[in-house]
C-alpha cells in the first residue's frame, strides 16, 4: 500500500486493531494494545503535513481559510471515505465486523490515522510527508473542489429536524477573551440538548461547523 | 536563538509581526502579511513533535492521557510562558506594545508558534524536531511535573464565582455517536451563558478541561 517494504510489520498490524479486539499487553498488566495510540500520533502527523501543504498551496489565504480547508480534508467522514478508497477497510479488525456496519462509522477513519502513525514510526517524516501528499492528497482529493464545495450542513440539519419533528437552535456561546480567542463558538441545540459546538472565524462558519459535527453524530447526509 | 544562522531571516521577522502591525502585501491587494499563517503552521508542527515525544516517552499510556498531557504543554498559557523563558517576547511587534500588556495575553504564545513555523520552513522537520525536544521540552518543561500537577481548575472557577457573585454550572453535553466519539463534552455555564466546552475521556476530565479554558478566558488563576 505504501509502495515499499515495511521495516516493522507489527506496527501496521497494530494500526488495524480496533480497541474492541485489543489484547492485553504482555508487558504491562491492564494495558490493552489497540490502534488508539497510533491514531493519536497519525492524526498529529497528518495534521502537520496537510497544514504545510495548504500553507504553500495558498500563499495569500489567511489562517482561517487554511484551518477550515484542513478540517474538511481530515474530518472523520473524509478519512472514512479515504480508508475505503485506498482499500484499508479490508484490513481493519474489530468485533462484530460482519454485523453492525452502522455503529462503526468512524472505525475506518480512525484506522486510517493509525495507519499513518505506523508509516511515520516505520519510515520517518519525510517518507510520510511524500506519501500523504503524493498518494493521498493528490490522488484522492480534489482540493479546489474541497474549497468550493460548501455543503450546507445547516440546511441539512434544519431539514432533518423538520422531517422528524425535532427542534433545532443555533446558540452563540461567548467567543471568550476578546483578542486572545478570535474564533466564534456556536452550540447546536437539538430538543434542548447541546449536540455539538462549532467554531469558526465568522458566526456563519461556526454554525456550519456545529452543523457538520451534528450531521456526523446523527448520521444525516 | 536556534543556535545556527537562519537561511531566510525574513521568515523569522514575519513570525514576530502581530496582525495589529501587519502591512499590506506588495503582491496581493487586501492581503495583510502577519504572523498568523506561520502560527497556524507552527501549531501543527509543534503538535506533531510533542505527540511523538509523548508517544515514545509513555509507551503504556493510552491516547486520552497523551492528548491531555500534550494539551497542557501546548496550551496558550504555557506557550506564553515559554516565549518569555526563551526571550522571544523581546522581539514581538504589536500595536501599543508599551501600553496594555493585559489585553495582549496570547500574543507571545501566538508568536512562539509562528516562530516554530518559521524554523520549520527555514530548517525542515528534523531540525525543528530536535530543537523543540532538546531546547524547549527538555530545557523548559518538567514533563513529569506537568503530568502530576493537576491544577484543580474546577475549584478555581467555583471559588472565583463565589467571590464575585456569579453562578456556575457544569452541564454535560451529549457525547454524541456512541463509539464514534469516545470523549465526554461538558459545557461550563456562567450566569446562564456557555463560556467554554471541555472534552475528555471522563466526565471529570471534561469538566477540568472546560474549567481550564474558562480560567484562560476570564484570567482566573
TrEMBL record, chains A, B:
Record-annotated active site: 43, 113
Cofactor(s) listed: Mg(2+)
What EC designation does it have? Answer: 3.1.26.3
Task: Write down the superkingdom of origin.
Answer: Bacteria
Primary location group: cytoplasm
Q: SUPFAM superfamilies given for it?
A: dsRNA-binding domain-like (SSF54768), RNase III domain-like (SSF69065)
Q: Gene3D superfamilies under this entry? A: 3.30.160.20, Ribonuclease III domain
Which InterPro entries does this chain map to?
dsRBD_dom, RNase_III, RNase_III_dom, RNase_III_sf
Task: Report domain RNase III positions.
Answer: 1-124
Residues at which Mg(2+) binds: 39, 110, 113
Subcellular location(s) per record:
Cytoplasm
Q: What does the record give as the reaction this protein catalyses?
A: Endonucleolytic cleavage to 5'-phosphomonoester
- UniProt entry keywords in alphabetical sequence: Cytoplasm, Endonuclease, Hydrolase, Magnesium, Metal-binding, mRNA processing, Nuclease, RNA-binding, rRNA processing, rRNA-binding, tRNA processing
DRBM domain: residues covered = 152-220
What does the similarity note say? Belongs to the ribonuclease III family.
**HAMAP family, per the entry:** RNase_III
Tell me the subunit arrangement.
Answer: Homodimer.
Q: What does this protein do?
A: Digests double-stranded RNA. Involved in the processing of primary rRNA transcript to yield the immediate precursors to the large and small rRNAs (23S and 16S). Processes some mRNAs, and tRNAs when they are encoded in the rRNA operon. Processes pre-crRNA and tracrRNA of type II CRISPR loci if present in the organism.
| Protein name (database record) | Ribonuclease 3
Upper lineage is: Bacteria, Pseudomonadati, Bacteroidota, Cytophagia, Cytophagales
Q: Which gene encodes it?
A: rnc
Amino acid at each position: 500500500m505504501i509502495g515499499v517494504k515495511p521495516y516493522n510489520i507489527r506496527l501496521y498490524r497494530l494500526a488495524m486493531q480496533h480497541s474492541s479486539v485489543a489484547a492485553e499487553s504482555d508487558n504491562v498488566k491492564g494495558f490493552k494494545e489497540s490502534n488508539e495510540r497510533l491514531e493519536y500520533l497519525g492524526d498529529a502527523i497528518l495534521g502537520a503535513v496537510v497544514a504545510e501543504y495548504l500553507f504553500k498551496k495558498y500563499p495569500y489565504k489567511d489562517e482561517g481559510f487554511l484551518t477550515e480547508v484542513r478540517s474538511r480534508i481530515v474530518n472523520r467522514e473524509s478519512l472514512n471515505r479515504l480508508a475505503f478508497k485506498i482499500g484499508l477497510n479490508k484490513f481493519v479488525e474489530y468485533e462484530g465486523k460482519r454485523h453492525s456496519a452502522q455503529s462503526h462509522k468512524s472505525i475506518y477513519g480512525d484506522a486510517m490515522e493509525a495507519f499513518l502513525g505506523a508509516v511515520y514510526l516505520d519510515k520517518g517524516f519525510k517518507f510520510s510527508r511524500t506519501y500523504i501528499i503524493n498518494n493521498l492528497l493528490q490522488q484522492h482529493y480534489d482540493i479546489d473542489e474541497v474549497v468550493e464545495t460548501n455543503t450546507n450542513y445547516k440546511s441539512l440539519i434544519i431539514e432533518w429536524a423538520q422531517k422528524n419533528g425535532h427542534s433545532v437552535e443555533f446558540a452563540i456561546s461567548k467567543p471568550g477573551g476578546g483578542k486572545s480567542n478570535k474564533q466564534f463558538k456556536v452550540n447546536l441545540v437539538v430538543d434542548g440538548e447541546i449536540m455539538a459546538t462549532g467554531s469558526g472565524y465568522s458566526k456563519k462558519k461556526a454554525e456550519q461547523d456545529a452543523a457538520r459535527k451534528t450531521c456526523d453524530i446523527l448520521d444525516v447526509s
